[in-house]
Amino acid sequence: MQYGMAFIEHITPDESLIRRMGRVLVSGKTPFQEYCLFESGGFGKVLMLDAEVQSTERDEYIYHEALVHPAMLAHPDPRDVLVVGGGEGATLREVLKHPTVQRAVMVDIDEELVRVAREWLEPWHQGAFEDPRTELHFADARAWLAASEDRFDVIVLDLTDPVGEENPAKMLYTREFYELLRARLNPGGVVVTQGGMLLLDRYQVHTVLHRTMREVFRHVRSYRDWVPGFFLTYGFIVAADGFDPSAYSEGVLEARILERQLKLRHLDAPFIEAMFVLPKDLKGWIAEETLISTDARPFYLTHEGEARVAGRSPYAD
Amino acid sequence: MQYGMAFIEHITPDESLIRRMGRVLVSGKTPFQEYCLFESGGFGKVLMLDAEVQSTERDEYIYHEALVHPAMLAHPDPRDVLVVGGGEGATLREVLKHPTVQRAVMVDIDEELVRVAREWLEPWHQGAFEDPRTELHFADARAWLAASEDRFDVIVLDLTDPVGEENPAKMLYTREFYELLRARLNPGGVVVTQGGMLLLDRYQVHTVLHRTMREVFRHVRSYRDWVPGFFLTYGFIVAADGFDPSAYSEGVLEARILERQLKLRHLDAPFIEAMFVLPKDLKGWIAEETLISTDARPFYLTHEGEARVAGRSPYAD
Amino acid sequence: MQYGMAFIEHITPDESLIRRMGRVLVSGKTPFQEYCLFESGGFGKVLMLDAEVQSTERDEYIYHEALVHPAMLAHPDPRDVLVVGGGEGATLREVLKHPTVQRAVMVDIDEELVRVAREWLEPWHQGAFEDPRTELHFADARAWLAASEDRFDVIVLDLTDPVGEENPAKMLYTREFYELLRARLNPGGVVVTQGGMLLLDRYQVHTVLHRTMREVFRHVRSYRDWVPGFFLTYGFIVAADGFDPSAYSEGVLEARILERQLKLRHLDAPFIEAMFVLPKDLKGWIAEETLISTDARPFYLTHEGEARVAGRSPYAD
Amino acid sequence: MQYGMAFIEHITPDESLIRRMGRVLVSGKTPFQEYCLFESGGFGKVLMLDAEVQSTERDEYIYHEALVHPAMLAHPDPRDVLVVGGGEGATLREVLKHPTVQRAVMVDIDEELVRVAREWLEPWHQGAFEDPRTELHFADARAWLAASEDRFDVIVLDLTDPVGEENPAKMLYTREFYELLRARLNPGGVVVTQGGMLLLDRYQVHTVLHRTMREVFRHVRSYRDWVPGFFLTYGFIVAADGFDPSAYSEGVLEARILERQLKLRHLDAPFIEAMFVLPKDLKGWIAEETLISTDARPFYLTHEGEARVAGRSPYAD
User: Fold this and answer.
1) Cα–Cα distance between A187 and A241 in angstroms, integer?
2) Distance of residue A26 Cα from the nearest chain D Cα, in angstroms
3) I need a labelling partner for B221 at 20 to 30 A (CA). Which of A255, C20, C153, C178 fits?
4) Chains in contact with C via at least 3 Cβ–Cβ pairs below 8 Å
């Protein structure tokens, strides 16, 4: 281990990661979060938000391709797309790769962070904020959706985990929020969300999210991918009413990738299909989950990693 | 992060992991390595060898199932099995789950570590060392194989990575070593090896190993799995001459799992199949590799993570 | 920095020390504290209590000589000596070096820790617990003193800092406690206590202690010494009624050291005198302190290092 | 311990300090060293050079007063003063406080660092670089002195420790260098140097320096002070030919402080006197040192803290 600047990152209450830092490019505090962008040895620039890595220059394509394309490819003709969160602009960038898209609305609460991203994160957004199809709103996503009458073909949720009792993000993980999303989908619409880390038995964000979405959508499917820059495998969940968004054959996926002329670095049709095949233990943990997050009793994780609703363990009720 | 005892683990030259330690159960130094077994919060007992995690009580089943069963299930009737390394006894334990096995030979260089394992790692070996089918040898695996005339249906290599110029393990990753293994296989035999971490562009152990094995075996297939206790996705490589060991259908795998009444926690037939489906970027890195590790110019990684043969960068030749 | 076992120690809320650990000799938890004894590179065996270093084998003589001898040498004929705390037995060992001592009473709350010390800390106690002049009591020191009618020539307080609102040690730093001590002194008696770290403006344990003792004793004098194993300079305070315990000339100190045939490694007469000469800034901080710790409003430090009485900042009243 | 940016600082090969970092104000690399200036909780701005703390905003007055004034006060009328090193400008600032000074020459090898200091370290230099008595030279001090015929009343050496075999600073710690300094002193002149950390038996920089200076100067005296921001007690050495620079009585010191109207925060006459009184163990270690650093066999410390001359242990000859 070398001496000098380092970033000490929370992974679990028992494990932390020390990342050696090169030059700090920019750091500061918005009304919503602290941010720090620094150079690293193996991952290029690293963006930290509130002491957790958000994404790294060299591997962000993995997370963002995995988040966006399974849902976008499941839809035969995604024209109107909503991105919630995703301040770096890379989720938007992946959405805009689909030539079917006519309107890409991004709603993020943190205007200042997006301003920092525009200036400093060009490798992430690659100009996506300037695309004529892009429409930016700085607002609480839930309030914005409640006030809007817009309908979307695909909604991509790129949110931080609901960690901390005071974290307003926990209201973006409840049954009522998913009901609101469902009401904003066009017929045949698809929702996808990042779904928390999958670390042995520290997976409750994923399983509660899965269970809660099952209350609202007919088809809910989990998939997962290894994100090197997080040193974690992350879960994702895709949901729809009209059809099973994971049921497409390799042939259909391959045809759509070709038709839309998508340039992908990490995904191809067989791998998209394989991401949905979960190991046996994880399938069991998802199946056994009983907790539904609701506005009255929203689910969150404590900073120590314990699952909670309304201040209590949800499994003790 | 909490104060107190911690284990600072090398992951890459730029990233380290701090694991909070509970009680140290046993620690010491054999002629070959330092070891330390301690209690942890999320992973139960953790076994460190030479400052890198070897396995953890609560997730070791993932690594050991992933290492052993794809090869064992690819063989229709594995009777004679060789395990090289694997001092904890868990690889042996998984091998012995197959009722077809009549003889399980384990060759490990470190007798003292196996003695420690027998006493302290019961959750790992679960009595495998006492199974009447087990035959233990404490020897350098290459010398032992050269001197032996035994033939095996499956050979499982559970070795440490070839890190450090002086590390003798690098001679267990060369073409000549694989030729020796091939000569010790029965017709229809299968070899499987752990294949290094897959961390963005820090994957050379995997790609060089894959490329080198291709020189020797007709069919060489990579697969991968997420190992939570390592905070890494690990590669594995299975090789055979008579048939493609990854080409079995879910149906065949499922039938063999049932026939052999295997109790698996992590693997099932669909997931075994899916592990072999690699992301596009990784397929490219494997395909582009040109380096072959040979006895004359054995491949190794420096402690700084640089690929080397004979002290030089192998790609500059 | 090297990989492997490390002890991460709280120094301030902003600075921590990472000590590389060799073998753990013993670790555990008594009803009062967690302990861990491990081997280190530069300091020999290191004893940690509740994640702070208590003392190290190779430099403990510095702390213990500095704590004990200025008070013992200030007294012309210390016969009855009380040690409060000091579980390792090294304070007792230094007291017993004075041939004038006829009775050395040690009161420590933690019987189990003393048992561990007897077994594992021979370099510290060097048999002091077995000295026929030694009398051990396992009790809360304040309760024991209140119940006892014994009188002492020197009282040595070797206590942990009053950190944490719930820490009962804070009741051993109040005016009423010092009044109790004063009542247990023979005429001409002397009290000495460790007096907290002196780290720029993180010195409140020292200044409040000094100020509080001034309420009770006529002569109160601070001195300080650098304790390498703590990576800190520590304060000490000696108090008496009959005479100024720091006013002895080098000549008198030297004569008493010779008379008592003290074998000292760190102290000699000129250095004892010099320890009492404080830098100008520290003299100012001591002089400016106004806070008196009382049973009704006992002083303590929060774990974040903030000074508090009854849950509030003492300087805001 | 909190998550986020941290500076991991080498103290010894076995102990490191983690300093929590606030905002990074400036960082970079000159031809001679890496630098980083960041905000901290307890010490204000912290300046790191090559991963070791150089000084902190809130406690730098301690180190710089201790380095400069004992030598300056030992001289009855210091007019021409040379500062070697001391890029922050604080040593120069303390020198210039003496109204007797007519010319203060500072020679530092690192022009870029001084440029950074002028811009960012105002609390350190406080305009000293602009004082009309100041004369700045950017050069190797030894070459500059060899080429110059100037004579000085006081020379202050504010150099980094001779760590690393390739470190050119080791040539500023040899007998021949001190002979050159001696030749550049006016009659009655005084030299003072920082003298390395005093950490139990990791004190060789100090003792070798002391021993080497004894070869050149008639009077060589060590003193020491606790530097909170280093978490270390540091040694200093003052040397002269005409008189013992530590032999002044408190009265004389006090008179000179008054005459020169020095505003000091840390030092006063009694404390200056007391700094020269060393503990018994340290006096012994200094007396036992036999090694003399010479141009032919210059002394240095390895990065692991081992004493070396010409690549070998100096005590094995």
Assistant:
1) 8
2) 9
3) A255
4) A, B, D
Active-site residue flag, D158: yes
List chain D residues with CB under 8 Å of B3: 1
Query: Please, what are the averages of pLDDT over each run of 10 residues along chain A (317 residues)?
Result: 88 93 91 92 93 94 98 97 96 98 97 96 97 97 96 97 87 97 97 94 92 98 97 97 90 96 97 97 96 95 84 68
Query: Inter-chain contact B2–D1, Cβ cutoff 8 Å?
Result: yes
- Is C6-54 CATH 3.40.50.300? no
- Rounding to the nearest 10 degrees, give the CA dihedral for residues D73, D200, C226, D235: 10
Dist. CA D75–CA D259, nearest whole Å: 13
| Whole-number Å distance between alpha carbons of B286 and B206 | 8
Residue D230, CA distances (Å) to C195, C213, D196 in order: 21, 31, 11
Decide if C245 contacts D236 (C-beta within 8 A): no
Question: Which residue matches tokens 């938000």?
Answer: A49
Please check whether residue C103 is in contact with residue C79, taking contact to mean a CB–CB distance below 8 angstroms: yes
The pair of structure tokens assigned to A168 is 């307003």
Question: Which residues contact residue B132 at a Cβ distance below 8 angstroms, ignoring those fewer than 6 apart?
Answer: none
Amino acid C18: pLDDT: 95
Domain B60-308, CATH homologous superfamily name and number: Vaccinia Virus protein VP39 (3.40.50.150)
Give φ, ψ of A215 to 5 degrees: -65, -25
Q: Cβ contact (<8 Å) for A201 and B8?
A: no
Q: Give the 3-state secondary structure of residue B139.
A: coil
Label residue D316 by pLDDT band (50, 70, 90).
low
β D185-197/D152-158 pair status: parallel
N-terminal to C-terminal alpha carbon distance within chain B: 46
Please name the chains neighbouring A, where neighbouring means 3+ C-beta pairs under 8 angstroms.
B, C, D
Domain edges within chain B: 6-56, 60-308
> What is the band of B166 on the pLDDT scale with cuts at 50, 70, 90?
confident
Q: How high is the pLDDT of residue C74?
A: 96
pTM: 0.92
Same-fold call for D6-55 versus D60-308: no
How far is residue B155's CA from residue B145's CA, in Å, rounded to a whole number? 11
Distance CA B36, CA B64 (A): 20
Chain C residues whose CB is inside 8 A of the A3 CB are 1
**D9 contacts on A by Cβ (under 8 Å):** 3
CATH 2.30.140.10 fits D6-55, yes or no: yes
What distance in Å separates residue D203's CA from the closest CA in chain B?
Answer: 28
List the structure tokens of D115: 């440029």
Interface probe, candidates B1, B2, B8, B14, chain D, greatest D C-beta count within 10 A: B1
- Cβ neighbours for D192, distance < 8 A, ≥ 6 positions apart: D67, D68, D70, D71, D154, D155, D156, D157, D236, D237, D238, D239, D245
Catalytic residue among C80, C110, C153, C158: C158
A225 vs A236: CA distance, rounded Å? 8
What does the pLDDT look like over D88-98, one tens digit per residue?
Answer: 999 999 999 99
D280 to chain C: which residues are within 8 Å by CB? 264-268, 271
Q: Which residues lie below 8 Å from residue C152, measured CB to CB, with a gap of 6+?
A: C80, C81, C82, C105, C184, C185, C186, C189
Number of H helices, E strands in chain B: 10, 15
Which three-class secondary structure state does DSSP give residue B12?
A: coil
| CATH-assigned architecture of domain B6-56 | Roll (2.30)
| pLDDT tens-digit series, residues A184-220 | 999 999 999 999 999 987 889 999 999 999 999 999 9
C-beta of residue B73 within 8 angstroms of C-beta of residue B86:
no
Closest chain D C-alpha to A30 CA, distance in angstroms: 14
Structure-token pair, residue D152: 């000085």
Q: Residue A32 carries which DSSP code?
A: S
Q: What interface predicted TM-score (ipTM) does this complex get?
A: 0.95
